[in-house]
Amino acid sequence: MQQLTILGATGSIGSSTLDVVSRNSDKYKVFAVSGYSQVNRLVEIAIAFSPQFIVTKDKVSAQQLHQALPSDLQSTITLKFGDEGLDYISSHPQVDTVMAAIVGAAGLSPVFSAIRAGKKVLLANKESLVMSGELFIDAVKEHGASLIPVDSEHNAIFQCLPHDYAYGDGERSGIEHLLLTASGGPFRAMDIEALAHVTPEQACAHPNWDMGQKISVDSASMMNKGLEFIEARWLFGLSAENIKVVIHPQSTIHSMVQYIDGSVIAQLGNPDMRTPIAHALAYPERINAGVKALDFFSLDKFSFEAPCQKRFPNLFLAIDACKRGQAATTALNAANEVAVQAFLNEQIRFTDIYTVNNYVVKQHSDARLEQLSQVIAHDRLCRECATYAIEERKI
Ligand code: NAD
Ligand code: MG
Known about the structure:
The protein is of the alpha/beta class.
């Protein structure tokens, strides 16, 4: 029985993980979960999975949760809160596997706790890897943790690589390119001039995937693919020159690896995150994910296009940041989190997200970040810079 901690259990990835676990309850036990503030959802999870620990945002939400729990669970479940609580359930000696599914930079500290405790880490929280890159990968090696990608594209690539692929082994493995596929999001075919006037609701209405708000906006701006470009660079140890982005609106091919002998290996499936989650949980075995089998006779025709820089400037900004190095990618991630939140709050326009990101990256790409504390300080500085740009109308 594998003991599992799910960070961000109340979110979209968290819910899909719980669904896969409930189909395989002979193999996985939910040891601990975290949720930020959705007390009602945490009560449902507590009743269905009886974890030993639940971590909430703060003391107040922990008290609310305690009162809302049925009395038998009040005595069996220990409640914790805040960063300390997250670090505790990520590194607990009884835990084998940690699903990192908190959104954004808030996931950085608990994912490092899991790595330092040598856990099997299933990584959905791409922002933590984008923020800390080499430090993240070095920590995985140093502490003997294992890292399995949950992001569908990276999980697909993981499945298409040689089974003994080692970090940075691109040339020896005959890899020419990783081909990251992208749906192009809801605005792929919209008039470019109209992008300045789209609403948060339109940006969150993804054609193929049902996801949290932040990643939905990132998908609409293709910043998500930019973050994934940087994520791929670090997960597989390849250079930016070995990674390409291909728009494939049907989202059936989840990514591909192109080899020097002309072979291309792809992973296909219905767009349902339970597939990569189940793969990551069971690797190297396979388990039932509850996902409908792909029916080739009812598929749309497959199409492919190159991303347009004018429509998706954030993608190109991210690729450029990836080439520039750690400070640039940390800056970009921080600026983007602030800008996306401001767009969701209707403080800025959709197209201003790029303007804020570019403003911050231009100013904060040259720092040397050699320790986690420096990454965290740089993240904070860049958030302040983005907030200033928005509030003082510098953009
Ligand atoms: P979501 O918004 O649905 O859920 C986010 C989770 O994080 C929730 O449980 C929330 O309570 C928690 N959370 C939010 N802010 C927090 C904070 N400050 N401290 C602690 N916990 C906090 O997001 P999601 O769509 O499930 O995405 C989660 C992560 O997985 C993101 O990094 C996203 O990029 C990545 N991802 C998601 C998908 C998808 O299909 N949803 C696909 C690939 C990767
Ligand atoms: Mg993805």
